[in-house]
Amino acid sequence: MEKRKKVSYAKYGYIFSLPFVVAFLLFTLYPVVYTVVIGFTDLKGFGKTTWNIQPDLFINFKQILSNASFKTALSNTVIMWIANFIPQILLALLLAAWFTNRSRKIKGQGFFKVVFYMPNIITAATVAVLFGALFGYPMGPMNSLLQSIGLAKEPVFFFQSKAIAKGVVAFIQFWQWYGYTMIILISGILGISPEIYEAADIDGATNIQKFFFVTIPNLRTVLIYMLVTSLIGGLQMFDIPLNLVANSGPDNGTLTTSVFIYNQAFKGSYMYNRAAAASMIMFIIISILSAFVFVLMQDKSEVKEKKEIKKAQKAMKKGGRA
Question: What's this model's pTM, rounded to 2 decimal places?
Answer without folding.
Answer: 0.85
